């Protein structure tokens, strides 16, 4: 590996002469030579390898989780996202990736998903551990080549996550999503709305970015087909707000 693992895990890619991450198109040639050291007639053999660096592909980089203060709850569904940047097509030709997790700041890794499409997003189930861990890392690696990325910095997996109101504890508005998980669209049913107030339906991703927003004027019930076919498979949240009451439901697009 170059740069060395100790440098890479600290986000240092050009700090050691001769062991830096190439940033220009070039061909790298490697040879490993071994000698058996036998008395009176030692033998020598070698193996060599060539790596071509493309200037038109990459960088291949994890975008989430990739910031400070991230806490995942055990058994939660979470998105892992990364920049594909042309690595799925020629000349790199890596259509699939593996997603791995580390509990010791990136020293060793365990596979979460193998051979999943290199499309920039995947939904994973956070492992259930015997105790919380604060030194977790995610690695996304090519399934058929040598390149990968490890997120920066460590994040936490907690036994329970508090202070994250991503899903309502109750369902005051009687929100029903069918089916869930879904493929392209789902039916949103809401049965207890005040017709004297507008109803807002907001759909967000796990980072809180609004991907769809619909306003309904003075309705007492909702029974609407919501189309998310243009968006990637992931975990999303649908929030229905009416008359100072709000309900948030987790939805999964497969």
Question: Main traits of this protein?
Answer:
elongated, 47% strand, Immunoglobulin-like, 3 domains, 18 strands, 254 residues, mainly beta, six-stranded mixed β-sheet
Topology:
Layout: H1 5-8, E1 26-35, E2 44-53, E3 61-64, E4 71-73, E5 77-83, E6 96-102, E7 110-117, E8 121-125, E9 133-142, E10 148-150, E11 155-158, E12 175-178, E13 185-190, E14 199-205, E15 210-216, E16 222-227, E17 234-242, E18 245-253
Parallel strand pairs: 4-11
Antiparallel strand pairs: 1-2, 3-5, 5-8, 6-7, 6-9, 9-10, 9-11, 12-13, 13-16, 14-15, 14-17, 17-18
What does this structure look like?
This protein has 254 residues and is an all-beta fold. It has one helix and 18 strands. The protein has one helix at residues 5-8, and strands spanning 26-35, 44-53, 61-64, 71-73, 77-83, 96-102, 110-117, 121-125, 133-142, 148-150, 155-158, 175-178, 185-190, 199-205, 210-216, 222-227, 234-242, 245-253. The strands form five sheets. Strands 4, 6, 7, 9, 10 and 11 form a six-stranded mixed β-sheet that branches. Strands 15-14-17-18 form a four-stranded antiparallel β-sheet, with no helix packed on it. The radius of gyration is 24 Å and the shape is elongated. The relative contact order is 0.13. The model is unreliable at 161-166 (pLDDT under 50).
